[in-house]
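User: I'm new to structure prediction. If I give you an amino acid sequence, what do you actually give back? Let's try with this one:
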Amino acid sequence: MTCIECGSKMTTKRENFKYDASGLPGVTLVNVKVSRCLGCGAYEVAIPRIEQLHEQMAYAVVAKRARLSAPEISFLRRFLGWSGADFAAHLGTTPETASRWENGRTPMGIQADRLLRSMVVHRSPVEHFELTLFKEMARDAPSPLRARFVADRSGWKAAA
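Assistant: Good question. You get back a string of structure tokens that encode the predicted 3D arrangement of the chain. For your 160 residues, that looks like this:
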């Protein structure tokens, strides 16, 4: 293997690697393949099943007892695949407030912290959880639910 930076030979070995690219401080990948250039010092890390790794990292963040830090909030937003504006809309706040949470200028409130953790743990595909629904909820006045449910062999379903 040759270095794409300088063309020198690279050597590969397994080592523990500080994973800064996640944006979470203190994350170490144990026993991963790291190729290092003997000439310029550039390196490449082989991270297998990166989506699964990020999911496990997200679950570790939401399981901690202390309130979420700014880098953790930012990581969870990106994990959920939301822009800053989408994140704010999902949590029912302004984009400016969400930005202050992610930049560490304002601590996230306890209710928002719990809501974000819950969204990570119970995340659903976007088609099942439309963002526009949250925007409409914020504007609409409270009204009682009026719905009919029908049981069939497969279980209960909402009737039209």
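You can read the tokens as a compact description of the fold. Here is one thing that stands out. Residues 1-48 form one domain.
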